[in-house]
Amino acid sequence: MARELQHGATIWDVARKAGVSITTVSHSLNGKGNISEATRERVRAVASEMGYVADAMARGLRSSKMNAIGLVFRSLDSLGNYGPNGVDVFMKLAGAAAAETLNRNLGLMLVPDLSRGPLPPFSMSLDGYIVFAPHLDDPVVALLEKRGIPYVTWDRDPGRPDFRNWVAHDDAASTRVVLNHLAAAGAGSIAYVGGTDRNAWNFDCEAAYVAWCLETGKEPRIYHVPERDGVEGGRQVGARILGDGMPGAVFCLTGRHASGAAQAMQECGVRIPGDLLVCTGSDSEHSRQHKPPISALDVDIPAAAAALVERLCEVMEGKSGSDPVLLVARFLHRKSTSPGKTRNQQKRGF
Amino acid sequence: MARELQHGATIWDVARKAGVSITTVSHSLNGKGNISEATRERVRAVASEMGYVADAMARGLRSSKMNAIGLVFRSLDSLGNYGPNGVDVFMKLAGAAAAETLNRNLGLMLVPDLSRGPLPPFSMSLDGYIVFAPHLDDPVVALLEKRGIPYVTWDRDPGRPDFRNWVAHDDAASTRVVLNHLAAAGAGSIAYVGGTDRNAWNFDCEAAYVAWCLETGKEPRIYHVPERDGVEGGRQVGARILGDGMPGAVFCLTGRHASGAAQAMQECGVRIPGDLLVCTGSDSEHSRQHKPPISALDVDIPAAAAALVERLCEVMEGKSGSDPVLLVARFLHRKSTSPGKTRNQQKRGF
DNA sequence: GTACGGAAGAAAAACGTTTTTGTGTAGCTG
DNA sequence: CAGCTACACAAAAACGTTTTTCTTCCGTAC
Asked: Which of A150, B44, B88, B337 has the fewest CB atoms within 10 Å, counting from its CB?
């Protein structure tokens, strides 16, 4: 008994105890085959009493399904560490995806980096992958493609226009929301600060910014800061922007850059939102904690996770031809982009 | 060929192509058996040319090892969501653990919550578990124990004094470091703010605080705030502390509480560190971003992950009898506990 | 009385490895 | 030259399931 529990009872143990064959046990438990309700119930009772759980590997081997998917964060891989940067979105997504996959009786495996070194033992046996923020010509995507492993991506892969199994925000639309908001709040000129990773987010937002400037007859002012430079990179670009002449507003794609830029400029005496509006394209602890809090676009993470997992399941079942899923980012209107307010309202932001 | 890659080449395909038996392939690739170097090399070449990777499930089935471990975050499970609270430590640890397990050719599976609902399909087949911050009488620990699945915990399980496979900070020592630091910086009385989760961290820190007060002849002032109340809970306790009479320093276990408490008190005109010193027992984005930055104890996450994985591997190999691993928390001395400094030094904190 | 058919379940094959056991040849010893 | 050892590899068993095929029993229709 102790021994039986030690390494898990097998289907044979259950069969013996219930006085039936292993076929009957398997069929009873999986609701298949042609088994009388009485037997089925009896077998179920015995199994649950023994705490029997089918061995995942044996089951997987037979059905050639692992019942688990992989999650790989390209943006973090590129950062070279799993530090606090971009933590928000990673953590929330990993958690939400784990919850979501669990609902479907799938495991979620964290896969650090498939693109270098020997492959992790499990990586090629997983049923599918969620690839978060693939780069241009991402080697991980190429590997999955070559192996014929189903995958979906968060954000489209900028190097694969034909690939359609992705979920993302409508970055163009979101960018316009922000720019229109800033313009309506009184910003005459708007500087744009993007990252340097070659992913769709950076590409699409910048393209939308340029298009918007063209339409509205404004002169584009574009800055780039490497993602990995974080708050400090933001500070530096803040100084550069100030040196080039203060705009009416700054739109920084990442929250860390926005926070750093705002910080540097505030230290030079710039008042936010009095003299300058600041907004970021991705909400994070930095934008929330800044004084004043910085307006931001925000991902509806549970929705994103749900859409990704759902789509991946479709792909794994062989369904194809669906269109990409475009989610709408929420715009969080905070103090940093409130037009013409006075001091005493800054007490607690929004 | 396309078909072969489609679902992965098997050991038979490699054997056929190399003109040997599957035994020889297996032995060649795993460096076992008695195979001439020439054959070994040839088989290796064929295998890698075909992109052959042994099926994880077949291998696992045979050797009854899954080559993957589970990671379960009890503190987050108790929060009921995987939101931004406590993100720092989760994210860093998950990443560091993933990197660490990868080095040992192990997969890392995220397991949301084992204590309710039907068991995830994989959960009972994993080779071992890292349980982060188990509660008192944690049901997840009980389950693993009953199943005989090896596990280690971060922080000891307060309900299992005999269990020794854990890694943690020396909370008692760390608490004394903080308290002595605060006292040396001039704090006459020190209020303590702990959480309400029934885990070892809360227990041990509070016990150490009480002991320290006894030794130094100070009157303990203890407050509790539920972990899930976050910054807002911190604000409320800040107000309560002020109502009870301002101490010389406040030591909040969690960074969110510290930030909230500091914020609330600052809004009432309290100057930090001029009038009051504030320190937290766990560094986070909140403590770093606060104005002024809040001194904190910090986990050396990579070291913690390394120790946990190392210990788990030992346990999985059947080694036992080792003592718990006690790590030393770093104390990050920041502006919020700097005695008697003047205004212009607050520019950028530390 | 025999053939048919469906119900209920058992036997056996299959999944892709690893590991144990077998086998044939070559080289050496006495 | 018989017998032993070492070598290089092959055959087969085993891991614990799921699934396909096979058996048995029984009732019913012809």
From this structure: B44
**Residue A273 CB neighbour total at 10 angstroms:** 24
Rounded CA gap, B188 and B248, in Å?
5
Query: Which residues in chain A touch residue B122, judged by CB atoms under 8 angstroms apart?
Result: 56, 67-68, 107
Predicted confidence (pLDDT) per residue in A116-171, tens digit: 777 887 889 999 999 988 888 888 999 999 889 999 999 999 999 999 999 999 99
Structural contact between residues A165 and A151, judged by C-beta atoms closer than 8 angstroms? yes
Distance A40 CA to D29 C1' (A): 32
B164-207 pLDDT, tens digit each? 999 999 999 999 999 999 999 999 999 999 999 888 999 999 99
Q: Does residue B10 lie within 7 Å of nucleic acid chain C, judged by its CB? A: yes
Alpha-carbon separation of residue A161 from A156, A158, A164, A207 (angstroms): 8, 7, 8, 16
In whole angstroms, what is the distance from residue A14 CA to residue B121 CA?
18
The answer to whether the predicted template modeling score (pTM) of the entire model surpasses 0.90 is: no
- List the beta bridge partners of residue B68: B107
CA distance A35 to chain B (A): 23
Beta strands in chain B (DSSP E): 68-73, 107-110, 128-132, 151-154, 166-169, 190-194, 221-224, 249-252, 277-280, 295-298, 325-327, 330-332
Inform me whether the C-beta atom of residue A7 falls under 8 Å from chain B C-beta atoms: yes
Question: Strand D positions with any atom < 7 Å from protein CB?
Answer: 7-12, 14-20
State whether residue B94 sits within 8 Å of chain A by CB. Answer: yes
Interface contact B7-A111, CB threshold 8 A: no
| CATH number for the domain whose boundaries are B171-299+331-348 | 3.40.50.2300
Q: Tell me how many helices (H) and strands (E) chain A has.
A: 14, 12
Name every chain B residue with its beta carbon within 8 A of the beta carbon of A51.
Answer: 146-147
Q: Is A81 in CB contact (< 8 Å) with chain B?
A: yes
Decide if B58-168+303-327 and B171-299+331-348 have a common fold.
Answer: yes
Residue B348: pLDDT band (50, 70, 90) is very low
| pLDDT band, very low/low/confident/very high, at A19 (cuts 50, 70, 90) | very high
Does the domain at residues A58-168+303-327 carry the CATH identifier 3.20.20.10?
A: no
Q: What are the boundaries of each domain within chain A?
A: 1-27, 58-168+303-327, 171-299+331-348
